[in-house]
Automatic annotation (TrEMBL):
Region (Disordered) location: 1-190, 297-346, 416-449
Lineage: superkingdom: Eukaryota
Recorded catalytic activity of this chain's protein: a 1,2-diacyl-sn-glycero-3-phosphoethanolamine(out) + ATP + H2O = a 1,2-diacyl-sn-glycero-3-phosphoethanolamine(in) + ADP + phosphate + H(+); ATP + H2O + phospholipidSide 1 = ADP + phosphate + phospholipidSide 2
Record GO terms (molecular function): ATP binding; ATP hydrolysis activity; ATPase-coupled intramembrane lipid transporter activity; magnesium ion binding
Protein name, per record: Phospholipid-transporting ATPase
Any one of the GO CC terms: trans-Golgi network
Biased composition annotated in UniProt, kind: Basic and acidic residues: 92-103, 322-333
UniProt-annotated binding residues for Mg(2+): 669, 671, 1077, 1081
Residues passing through the membrane, by range: 1167-1186, 1211-1233, 1245-1263, 1270-1292, 1304-1325
Length: 1340
């Protein structure tokens, strides 16, 4: 494989000259020419057999070298013997003006091949290094063509093949059978990942695939899904029956065409959706990424193609600025360098040469090292190895410009003629120097955005392990990562990073057990060293990361449950009714045959007649029902997305809008859903006094005095404040109490300004002005840091090692600390801590550990901090008071550490961090033992989370609509209680029964017994107690909980939220709606019958996973009470009309068959059958989707109208059989009277019967309409006119002469009146005697 120039993050890259011009000494044995046939074999054997004995970090002493010659003599001799070359290019020409061509560096005029060759474009491994003539011939490529110049022909990419003991990769690296030799990956086992080279195990490809189907599975799967609906299967059987001559009635297309049309529309929609999914997948899979390619030093002199040098823009610009006068003295530098290198023996080579190549996301493999910059989406799960900030690169620019240019010049003119004996640049660049440069280049930190992974939009800090951060990039191939099996837990990771002596050790399977080797260095890896797939690099640093999990094994792929296809309750109800209709068809067919008698005579077999009747009555099960309902759903979705009262609403699942009108349980998240997730520091309590609102000005005064912020003296500006520095003399005249309070305020403000994970950022806005802001994973922390700025102490700088606080007024630094350890917040620990060392004055270097104060600060929930802080008598009371006010509380404490205490803790903590099993528990045990006890209690903060707009009236309206509301939150009990009360979720005075920290089964049963006797109370339960009930009292708990008007569950995990939703569905068989805004709500949303996502501050993941997306919680009321109610009532009426339309024509067919002495002959054939179901009735019936019984204001004013829908009365067995009776009545009258008035058979009867049938359906639609819409008028009138116009084209079915007579008209009018007037009269009487609710509220 080709390679390129080394990549130094801490300084401009070296050129190959740095490597190839070094004074390497080669054993004379190695230069002994061998036959070409043996060269490859010997190289492969040596490459695979040796283990990097000359690795860069090896400290072993080498034995005395055998007789050798300097490779420099070979190289420079070739140059000095040149005949026509210019020496060292322009540099040499300026010194001696020699324009003769030189001979080649190495010759091979006689065609004999040695073991080593100068690489060429063809990588001929058999070209000789030395010729039989002493190397005086011209250098040629493997094709024999003379090369003009190294520079012009891409010398940077030409390499010399070194002996195998210096090679960094095995001889079979490019073995075409490598794929077959790889072991299959075992997903249940941990993995060893070698950084850079190909792996010994085959891992899955890094492909993103959201497609449901393949080219082979599309038709089978989609057809199976379609025919799993009963009526589709029914019509398929009917259509297939027409292939049997004895069962054929009319044209085959009459039965096949409607089914084919329905299937075509459905399959086309599925195909389009899947093609779109594949298109989006291809876009993601084809995204280009920069990958570092690591090449052997021995393979890096021969290159196929040029590689880009990994330089910063600063370095490139600096190289161009170097003066020409520097170039003229370069040759003397080279000569001095060569003389210095003389006799130093074999130079230590880097472990690899690094080049950049571009790969598509789908081609990335485990072990590849990615180069990521700001805005890049991480394509796979990676471990961060190095982070290089642009600022640190710029700081190095000045001192590195000259070496960078020297390398380029030396490289470009390597082959040119020389007037005298030159020397190369000193090639002895030690690994230690490189490591030192890398270490100083960056602190190894970067920020990522995880909004597409966990729904949080705040940045997360990620760190490179010091072991890899301090390595030069060429040495990364000596690293090996030990990672656990693929896991879906996005917040956990345990692994180990090992630095082995050489690259061969990493690549050798035998070295996998070398952990005990003294040369192996190890460092722990945690979640802080990772970036999972679909996260985005947010900071400006260049990040190098190695891939450890790809494709289906990434965290995001494992965490994403396949979204289930949701089917509305109305669909199931209609499917049940369809089965009844099918049974009715079979019953009717058997009865008609039985009335004639079960004859077995030839040509009149009874079972054949039954089958023919089934075909004739197939219209009873209307195939157009699915089409009409799907069109109706599309209309409802269109209304929702274009409602100006719900801006930004998106319908992602268009199959369930009717379910919005059937909701009985609403499960809601709290933070970001009911509340705005906008935090504001409202209150702080320091033990004896509490500050809020205007009193914060007094806090600012204390801070100004305590940190001497008002001083502008130059001497004062050099001194920095520490916790024990003297309190300002400006307050000397104050009372002792006031001084104590001032001291406490100063201490708690300092603690809050230091103990956090907030990073200050500055970005340019649209106007080009710099805007300062804060980024953190918790909005609470941002609110607190903003508050410390408002009282005078601003967070000015934060990196991995330091925090600087400055005066908000003057901008003068007042506090600077060195971060020694940080303990991030976890949902289990509910606290975060930090150990810092204070600077006593501004100085460039960090103070030694024993020279200044070391403090441990910690803040967390009162439930955990109460046992950590020293004994006090006010903490519990104050936290309870703040929680009752709806404030989120944090307790702050501190502890001073001596040098001995810190060193002892640090050693134990580091030891625990290296343990493979139980690492987190071991580390936490050390922290608890050494730090978390007897902390000085500094104060309590109260942060307010504001309620969303119109949350109170919205919850009240939903409760009046008969919806039982549960609030599921991860927040603590007191905060959840307060939000429930303040949001009117719980009425004032309503009894709240609290169950918390329940661990015993007997207590659990007692609580359930109490709740059964108080079904009007509110249940408040925490996650621990909820887990107890879900495990041991599942049925008992849910049977009581569903009776209560409100349930509030606190400290809920995402899994518990989803489990509660499933439990309610299973037990009650009612429709459940879940609403949330964060990634932690996705599982709950997907488990619900209807999932609603809010586009909030926590990201868009909940919105993208939901069936319906809205922007505000109060939009939910309109979505349910207005759109949900209308969608359900319209679809119910539409479904019943379509059933009526098919049933009435089947009754007419029955009457006709009876008149024909039970013969199964068709009444309406071919176009009459198809036209009736499409052209002549479709639009008027479909226009019912525009009907509404009340306007929006009345629906909101009387939410009780929604409540009656939950019983399903709009489409029930009662209403179904009413419509069946109406269909039988009208069908019998229409066909019976037509036969009586015009004769049983003939075109006259057919004309009267069919015309009345169409007219009856149009007028029935008009009778059922509650609120007229212009579209309804146009569709009804237009359809009737269309039928009248089409009558002249129906001469094959009708007697057209009879149609033009008065007799036809009075027969049609009489039959239609007898059919419709009683039906309409019955409806009016029923409305008068028992008016529906909507007519009551209208005052009619």
């Amino acid at each position: 494989m080709p390679s390129s120039d080394p990549y130094h993050l801490s300084k401009p890259p070296d050129s190959h000259v740095d490597e190839s011009d070094s004074d390497l000494e080669i054993d004379l044995e190695e230069l002994d020419p061998q036959p070409a046939t043996d060269s490859r074999n010997s190289h492969q054997q040596q490459s695979s057999g040796k283990k990097g004995s000359h690795s860069r970090n090896s400290s072993e002493q080498r034995p005395p070298p055998p007789p050798s010659i300097a490779l420099r003599n070979l190289r420079m001799g070739g140059l000095r013997r040149g005949a026509k070359r210019n020496g060292y290019g322009e540099l040499g020409r300026s010194r001696d003006g020699n324009n003769e061509d030189s001979h080649g560096l190495l010759g091979n005029d006689d065609g004999n091949h040695g073991r080593y060759s100068v690489g060429s474009a063809t990588h001929d491994e058999d070209a000789g290094l030395l010729s039989e003539h002493g190397g005086g011939g011209r250098m040629r490529t493997s094709s024999g063509r003379r090369r003009r110049s190294f520079a012009s022909d891409g010398l940077r990419n030409i390499s010399m093949k070194l002996p195998s003991f210096m090679s960094g990769n095995s001889g079979d690296q490019n073995n075409p059978n490598e794929e077959q030799e790889q072991e299959e990956d075992d997903p249940s086992a941990s993995r060893l990942v070698a950084v850079g080279p190909s792996q010994s195990t085959r891992f899955p490809p890094n492909l993103i695939s959201n497609a449901k189907y393949t080219a082979w599975s599309f038709l089978p799967v989609t057809l199976y899904n379609e025919f799993s609906f009963f009526f589709n299967m029914y019509f398929l059987l009917v259509a297939l029956s027409q292939a049997i001559p004895a069962l054929r009635i009319g044209y085959l297309s009459t039965y096949v065409a409607p089914l084919a049309f329905v299937l075509f529309i459905t399959l086309a929609k599925e195909a389009y959706d899947d093609i779109e999914r594949r298109r989006r997948d291809n876009e993601a899979n084809s995204e280009e990424y920069t990958v570092l390619q690591f090449e052997d030093p021995g393979a890096s002199l021969g290159m196929n193609r040029p590689r880009r040098k990994m330089k910063s823009a600063h370095t490139r610009k600096g190289s161009k600025r170097l003066g020409v006068e520097r170039e003229t003295d370069r040759l003397s530098d080279i000569q001095e360098e060569e003389e210095q290198a003389e006799g130093q023996g074999l130079r230590k080579l880097p472990a690899s040469y690094v080049s950049e190549i571009s790969k598509k996301s789908k081609d990335l493999k485990v072990g590849d090292v990615l180069k990521l910059t700001k805005g890049h989406r991480v394509p796979a799960d990676v471990i961060i190895l190095k982070c290089l900030s642009h600022e640190s690169a710029a700081n190095k620019e000045a001192e590195e410009e000259t070496p960078a240019k020297e390398e380029v010049l030396l490289l470009d003119h390597l082959e040119d003629d020389d007037a005298g004996e030159g020397s190369s640049k000193n090639a002895e660049t030690s690994t230690d120097d490189e490591n030192k440069g890398a270490e100083g280049s960056s602190s190894g930190e970067t920020f990522i955005r995880t909004d597409q992974l966990d729904g949080e939009t705040d940045w997360k800090l990620r760190l490179a392990s010091p072991l890899s951060q301090n390595l030069s990039t060429e040495e990364l191939v000596r690293l090996r990562v030990t990672a656990g099996k693929p896991d879906k837990r996005v917040n956990e990771f345990v692994g180990t990073l090992e630095l082995l002596p050489s690259r061969q050790d990493v690549m050798s399977s035998a070295a996998y057990n070398s952990r005990e080797d003294d040369d192996v260095k190890a460092a722990p890896l945690s979640i802080d060293n990772t970036a999972w797939a679909n996260t985005v690099i947010a900071s400006n640093a260049t990040t190098l990361a190695v891939i450890v999990y790809t494709g289906p094994q990434t965290r995001s792929a494992l965490s994403t449950s396949p979204s289930r296809s949701k089917t509305g309750l109305l669909e199931y109800e209609i499917n049940s009714l369809t089965k009844i209709l099918c049974f009715l068809t079979l019953f009717l067919s058997i009865v008609l045959v039985a009335l004639e008698g079960f004859s077995t005579a030839k040509g009149n077999v009874w079972y054949v007649k039954i089958m023919r009747f089934l075909v004739l009555f197939s219209t009873i099960v209307p195939i157009s029902l699915r089409v009409n309902l799907d069109l109706g759903k599309s209309v409802y979705s269109w209304f929702i997305q274009r409602d100006p009262g719900i801006p930004g609403a998106v319908v992602r699942t268009s199959t369930i809008p009717e379910d919005l009108g059937r909701i009985e349980y609403l499960l809601s998240d709290k933070t970001g859903t009911l509340t705005q997730n906008e935090m504001e520091m409202k209150k702080i309590h320091v033990g004896t006094v509490s500050y809020a609102n205007e009193a914060m000005d007094e806090v600012a005064t204390y801070v100004k005095q305590g940190f001497n912020l008002g001083s502008s003296a130059s001497s004062a500006s050099l001194a920095l404040a520490t916790p024990s520095s003297t309190y300002s003399a400006a307050n000397v005249g104050a009372t002792r109490t006031r001084r104590e309070i001032g001291s406490r305020v100063r201490d708690v403000v300092l603690a809050l300004a230091l103990c956090h994970n907030v990073t200050p950022t500055s970005e340019e806005d649209e106007n080009g002005q710099t805007v300062n802001s804060y980024q953190a994973s918790s909005p609470d922390e941002i609110a607190i840091v903003k508050w410390t700025e408002s009282v005078g102490l601003r967070l000015a700088h934060r990196d991995r090692k330091h925090i600087v606080l400055e005066s908000a007024e003057s901008g003068r630094p007042v506090v600077k600390v060195r971060i020694l350890d940080i303990f991030p917040f976890t949902s289990e620990g509910k606290r975060m801590g930090i150990i810092v060392q204070f600077y006593e004055k501004l100085q460039p270097n960090a103070p030694s550990l024993g020279s200044s104060e070391i403090w441990f600060y910690q803040k967390g929930a009162d439930t955990v901090m109460s046992s950590i802080v020293a004994a006090n008598d006010w903490l519990d009371e104050e936290t309870a008071n703040m929680a009752r006010e709806g404030l989120r509380t944090l307790v702050v404490g501190r502890k001073r550490l001596s040098l001995k205490e810190y060193q002892e803790f640090s050693a134990k903590h580091h030891e625990a961090s290296l343990s493979i099993s139980g690492r987190e528990a071991s580390m936490q045990a050390v922290v608890s033992q050494y730090l978390e006890h007897n902390l000085e209690l500094l104060g309590v903060t109260g942060v307010e989370d504001k309620l969303q707009k119109d949350v109170k009236p919205s919850l009240e309206l939903l409760r009046n609509a008969g919806i039982k509301i549960w609030m599921l939150t991860g927040d603590k009990v007191e905060t959840a209680r307060c939000v429930a009360v303040s949001s009117k979720l719980v009425a004032r005075g309503q009894y709240i029964h609290t169950i918390a920290k329940l661990r015993r089964k007997d207590g659990a049963q007692d609580n359930l017994d109490l709740l059964r006797s108080k079904t009007d109370s509110c249940l408040l339960i925490d996650g621990e107690s909820l887990a107890m009930y879900l495990t041991h009292f599942r049925r008992e708990f849910i049977s009581v909980a569903v009776l209560l008007p409100t349930v509030v569950a606190c400290r809920c995990s995402p899994t518990q939220k989803a489990e509660v939703a499933k439990l309610i569905k299973e037990y009650t068989k009612k429709r459940v709606c879940c609403i949330g805004d964060g990634g932690n709500d996705v599982s709950m949303i997907q488990a619900a019958d209807v999932g609603v996502g809010i586009v909030g501050k926590e990201g868009r993941q909940a919105s993208l996973a939901a069936d319906f997306s809205i922007e505000q919680f109060h939009h939910l009321t309109k979505l349910l009470v207005w759109h949900g109610r209308n969608s359900y009532k319209r679809s119910a009426k539409l479904a019943q009309f379509v059933i009526h339309r098919g049933l009435i024509i089947a009754v007419c067919q029955t009457m006709y068959s009876i008149a024909l002495k039970f013969e199964p002959e068709g009444l309406y054939k071919d176009w009459l059958m198809v036209g009736y179901a499409t052209v002549y009735t479709a639009m008027p019936v479909l226009s019912l989707v525009l009907d509404k019984d009340v306007d929006e204001d009345l629906a909101n004013l009387y939410p009780e109208l929604y409540k009656e829908l939950t019983s399903g009365s709009s489409l029930s067995y009662r209403t179904f059989f009413v419509w069946v009776f109406v269909s039988i009545y009208q069908g019998c009258l229409i066909q019976g009277l037509s036969q009586v008035l015009t004769g049983v058979d003939g075109p006259r009867m057919l004309a009267v019967s069919y015309t009345v049938l169409v007219l009856n359906e149009l007028l029935m639609v008009a009778i059922e309409i509650t609120t007229w819409h212009w579209v309804m008028v146009v569709s009804i009138v237009g359809t009737f006119l269309m039928y009248v116009v089409s009558i002249p084209f129906l001469g094959g079915y009708f007697d057209l002469k009879f149609v033009l007579t008065l007799g036809f008209l009075w027969r049609v009018a009489a039959i239609a009146a007898i059919s419709l007037i009683p039906t309409y009269a019955a409806k009016v009487i029923r409305r008068t005697m028992k008016p529906p609710s909507y007519r009551k509220v209208q005052g009619i």
